[in-house]
TrEMBL record:
Classification via SUPFAM superfamilies: ABC transporter transmembrane region, P-loop containing nucleoside triphosphate hydrolases
Keyword 4Fe-4S tagged: no
Organismal lineage: Eukaryota, Viridiplantae, Streptophyta, Embryophyta, Tracheophyta
Entry GO MF terms: ABC-type transporter activity; ATP binding; ATP hydrolysis activity
Keywords: ATP-binding, Glycoprotein, Membrane, Nucleotide-binding, Repeat, Transmembrane, Transmembrane helix, Transport
ABC transporter domain segment(s): 119-355
Stated name of the protein: ABC transmembrane type-1 domain-containing protein
InterPro entries for this protein: AAA+_ATPase, ABC1_TM_dom, ABC1_TM_sf, ABC_transporter-like_ATP-bd, ABC_transporter-like_CS, P-loop_NTPase
Family statement: Belongs to the ABC transporter superfamily. ABCB family. Multidrug resistance exporter (TC 3.A.1.201) subfamily.
CDD domains noted in UniProt: ABC_6TM_Pgp_ABCB1_D2_like, ABC_MTABC3_MDL1_MDL2
Transmembrane parts of this sequence: 21-44, 56-77, 432-452, 472-492, 555-573, 579-599
Length: 636
């Protein structure tokens, strides 16, 4: 296995080394700047000697043109960002200018003055756009009387929840029509239509804000008294009042600070605060335990009084008192009646569902009883009290097990020795030597280039043309030599460090995998040691080490070389000026450091702000049904 892994890595190594070679050629080609400066220097001397041009003017023109060319080259590299921005802008504009087929912002359409609350589905045909080959309804006919509670029951995928989606105009039927008080909902204003309905879903969508703000999503202009009254009607006021901050209590992201029953009661308060004529309950208690279900069901019973209510039922025990029950199968209404009427038909779908659910509940109760019995029998008599005390105390004073202690020690990551990393690169010592020498030599180019270009200023002011020619020839050849030298030294430098880095990366990955394959199986059961984490570690962490002994080491050697040679030249040429310039270097260094710290700090703040806005956008998109149902786009 290791040999196969090594062979696969060898391909990556070869590509990496080749990439280093290409990088050296690319960066070495920048030496053309030195050759170009040499050419302009020579031509400038001819202008001084043959045309009487002033040396200062010549030097100023050379500097201006060179800097302009460098800026132009850097600017051309950024042209791709313009094209990328144009493409991104087109996509953004297309989204912004898109007019949805069902536009909640469209103010056209009727608004009824007096809502009775009678709903009719007449020969409705529908299939989801994402599944055009799977019809949900072929010919659905359904009447929901005003002020009555109607329950829809059926197996998964029968189309129960789709009824609510169609009624709220999340989708439009392909054929047939849906009527509210005899008026097609297509003719009604979408925002007004949804404002007449209150939705409570199986998984209540709470937003990362206070309880009060979450309830106000149902009615934005509601007063605090209305919020409290809605909470009382949903049996939520008592537990909210027990919180230290009351209605200002933050529910956390997706309502994680609340229990399932608490979230559901807040959602009910949000649904009924606007006194909707129609209440939609989409399996509102299916995700709750028995105790929470009882409390929430009481709240729902209060909320349904005097309203047209459509209940999508999962637990059939919650719809016994419904005025009408519709059994749905494959998109068709197969049975209609009250609970008692439907139970009389022993072969009917509803009675079959009731019996099946009753059997499942009995099996669940038996399993719970057996489980509790096994636990009780395993505790000797007289020790249960002490055990319960120990359990309570353990929840207060956490005890760290041996495995946890070992894990804690392992999590205290120590900084690995740089010498140890270099030791792993010992087989490539020749390439390390070549790379460091070439980096040091490349570091000398900038000071020498500065010396040559600066010296040419004095050459332009020489009155002896013969001396001017000789010195010009010397400095031009020096600049051309720097261009050639820069090209080859860059190739050697980047090839050598790439060779070092790639083989170090390969060696680390091989050693890691070889060691990992010897670990015990339970080591892999930990989340941090999953296959995805291990692959990420092999890929990313090894590359981080590679950058340390590659590009970073090259940069350090170059910097040291440049500083030493520049200071030496400065002392040789004009030691007094060199001392003054070195004295002000700390100020320059501090300016660069301050600039970096400020930019980094501002960048962190900007990223944090973007993360917050991204979280809000993600929360909005993930809860789009709730936002659409309550027309809360502006509030978000």
């Amino acid at each position: 296995m290791i040999s196969k892994f090594s062979a696969a890595l060898q391909i990556s190594v070869e590509l990496g080394v080749r990439q280093g070679l290409v990088k050296g050629i690319a960066l070495g080609s920048h030496g053309i700047t030195y050759a170009n400066w040499g050419f302009m220097t020579w031509y400038g001397s001819r202008m001084v000697m043959d045309h009487g041009a002033k040396g200062g003017t010549i030097f100023a023109v050379i500097v201006c043109i060179t800097l302009g060319g460098i800026s132009l080259g850097g600017g051309l590299l950024n042209l791709k960002y313009f094209s990328e921005a144009v493409v991104a802008g087109e996509r953004i504009i297309k989204v912004i200018e898109r007019v949805p087929d069902i536009d909640s912002e469209n103010t056209e359409g009727q608004t009824l003055e007096n809502i009775i609350g009678e709903v009719q589905f007449n020969h409705v045909k529908f299939m989801y756009p994402s599944r055009p080959d799977t019809p949900i309804f072929e010919d659905l006919c359904l009447t929901i009387p005003s002020g009555k509670t109607v329950a829809l029951v059926g197996g998964s995928g029968s189309g129960k929840s789709t009824v609510i989606s169609l009624l709220q105009r999340f989708y439009d039927p392909i054929a047939g029509e849906i009527l509210l008080d005899g008026v097609s909902i297509r003719e009604l204003q979408v925002k007004w239509l949804r404002s007449q309905m209150g939705l409570v879903s199986q998984e209540p969508a709470l937003f990362a804000t206070s309880i009060e703000e979450n309830i106000l999503f149902g009615k934005e202009d509601a007063s605090m008294d209305e919020v409290v009254e809605a909470a009382k009607s949903s049996n939520a006021h008592d537990f909210i009042s027990q919180f230290p901050h009351g209605y200002k209590t933050q529910v956390g992201e997706r309502g994680v600070q609340m229990s399932g029953g608490q979230k559901q009661r807040i959602a009910i308060a949000r649904a009924i605060i606007k006194s909707p004529k129609i209440l939609l309950l989409d399996e509102a208690t299916s995700a709750l335990d028995s105790e929470s279900e009882r409390v929430v069901q009481e709240a729902l019973d209060n909320a349904t009084l005097g309203r047209t209510t459509i209940v999508i039922a999962h637990r059939l025990s919650t719809i016994r008192n419904a005025d009408m029950i519709y059994a749905v199968h494959n998109g068709l209404i197969v049975e209609t009646g009250t609970h008692e009427e439907l139970m009389e038909n022993k072969d009917g779908q509803y009675s079959s569902l009731v019996r099946l659910q009753h059997m499942e509940n009995e099996e669940s109760n038996v399993n719970k009883t057996e489980s509790n019995g096994n636990i009780s029998s395993s505790i000797p008599e007289g020790q249960s009290l002490s055990l319960s005390k120990e359990l309570r105390s353990s929840s207060i004073l956490p005890v760290q097990s041996g495995d946890d202690f070992v894990k804690t020690l392992r999590d205290k990551k120590l900084m690995p020795s740089f010498k140890r990393l270099l030791a792993m690169n010992r087989p490539e010592w020749k390439h390390a030597l070549y790379g460091c020498l070439s980096a040091a030599l490349y570091g000398a180019i900038s000071p020498i280039y500065s010396y040559a270009s600066g010296s040419m200023v004095s050459v332009y002011f020489l009155t002896n043309h013969g001396e001017m020619k000789d010195k010009t020839r010397f400095y031009v050849l020096l600049l051309v030599g720097l261009a050639i030298f820069s090209f080859f030294i860059n190739i050697i430098q980047h090839y050598s460090f790439a060779y070092m880095g790639e083989y170090l990366t390969k060696r680390i990955r091989e050693e890691m995998l070889k060691k990992i394959l010897t670990f015990e199986v339970n080591w892999f059961d930990e989340d941090e040691n999953s296959s995805g984490e291990i692959c990420s570690r092999l890929a990313k962490e090894a590359n981080l080490v590679r950058s340390l002994v590659g590009e970073r080491m090259s940069l350090v050697v170059q910097t040291i070389s440049t500083v030493i040679i520049a200071c030496t030249l400065g002392f040789v040429i004009a030691w007094r000026l060199a001392i003054v310039m070195i004295a002000v270097q700390p100020v320059i260094i501090m300016c660069f450091y301050t600039q970096r710290v400020l930019l980094k700090t501002m960048s962190k703040k900007a990223i944090k702000a973007q993360d917050e806005s991204s979280k809000l956008a993600a929360e909005a998109v993930s809860n789009i049904r709730t936002i659409t149902a309550f027309s809360s786009q502006e509030r978000i």
